[in-house]
Design brief:
Structural class: mainly alpha
Distance between the termini: 15 Å
Strand content: under 5%
Largest sheet: none
Number of helices: 8
Shape: globular
Helix content: over 70%
Radius of gyration: 17 Å
Order of helices and strands: HHHHHHHH
């Protein structure tokens, strides 16, 4: 594969990471709850504010990579190591997106909060598809679900739901011990109806947005013409 082709693939995949990071940031800004994979880094940041959400994100991804290694052992492929730079890129993109949305004042209107949440759904759906179309970066969260599904011989969708439940329960448990409540620190909401909305509707939204993303970006990727 030529350097030009590699640049195109990773360029589109990186755009996907940027869009997903924007989805994470605006869902945090909604204060209505965030997507399950982003719950642990966010609740940890609320406890230890000196460490950013993005830093906790890449730390969590590194733990997931170690989990994959423990499960796969000799079956762990060399290409899976690309999850490491992807973790750092995505983590710091999340920090940049959160900093960008800090310019917006939190809304006290439930309709605006819901609107932010739904924009987060749209951005996440588009960003994930861009990652898939680009065939570049591999995010540890997604790859871990693939590994677990293959190992347990269960459908990807079923393992994904279980994975999300574990993230939310772990977040709620930590929140309870750290702040005395299940949803956050009393100011920033991490788990609420927005968490359920993001968990359910991203997949549904992708049914509608995927064809447009494929049409716009698919022909740009070598081998997809």
């Amino acid at each position: 594969m030529s350097l030009k082709n590699i640049a195109i693939r990773y360029g589109i995949s990186t755009l996907g990471l940027i869009v997903v990071a924007l989805g994470v940031a605006i869902s945090i800004k909604s204060n209505l709850g965030i997507a399950p994979p982003s719950c642990p880094p966010t609740i940890l940041n609320l406890k230890w504010t000196g460490i950013s959400v993005g830093t906790f994100t890449w730390m969590m991804h590194l733990v997931l990579i170690l989990l994959q290694l423990a499960i796969l052992r000799k079956r762990f492929k060399l290409e899976y190591l690309m999850q490491i730079p992807a973790a750092f890129v995505f983590g710091y993109m999340c920090d940049a997106a959160i900093w960008l949305f800090d310019a917006f004042n939190p809304s006290t209107s439930y309709l605006m909060q819901l609107a932010y949440c739904l924009i987060g759904v749209l951005l996440t759906a588009v960003g994930i598809k861009l990652e898939v179309v680009g065939k570049g970066w591999i995010l540890a969260g997604d790859q871990t679900v693939v590994v677990l599904a293959d190992t347990l011989r269960k459908p990807f969708s079923a393992v994904k739901v279980l994975n999300d439940i574990v993230f939310v329960l772990a977040t709620a448990l930590f929140s309870w011990f750290a702040f005395g409540q299940l949803t956050g620190n009393g100011v920033t909401v991490v788990i609420r109806e927005g968490t359920l909305i993001l968990a359910i509707f991203v997949g549904i939204c992708m049914r509608f947005t995927d064809p447009y993303v494929e049409k716009l970006f698919g022909p740009m990727v070598p081998g997809n013409e």
